[in-house]
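name: query_chain
kind: protein
chains: 1
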Amino acid sequence: MYITADETTNDYFERFKTVKILDPRKNIEKTWQVVGVDPYYGDGTLQIFLDEYFENSIADAVAASENTLVDSPIDETSAYIDGPKTIKQYSKAYYEIKNATNGKWYLRWKDEEQDLNSSSRIIPLNASIGELGVFTLIYRTEEKDIELKVEITRL
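structure:
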């Protein structure tokens, strides 16, 4: 496949491994796996090498339902973290601790905990990874950990 090389297409094919292309004869989208990209093919042209990709829509639907976070009611009189529970890849979100002080922010991703080196009331987070999934934002005080599960979704 040959497409115009610009900032958007170069960035897209560096980050993603699959692409959906509309079949005009059947009027349906088909997913293809990106096997290789030749950015030096020609002046202003990207050469993309594609291979067939099997979509398991049933398994994808089950995985999506398992990863969806269920909203539970918040007791606004106790300590909690206020902020979005779902964010897009490569976006920025702000989180605020409510009804708690003298704590520190941490982030748990895939069983690894990271100290965010901040004790401020509001913390900005950049979802700068391309990976999808759920992480836990933690505000740790001497008395307890206040946690919020956040899901990273596709752009």
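note: The domain at 70-153 is CATH 2.60.40.1930 (Immunoglobulin-like).
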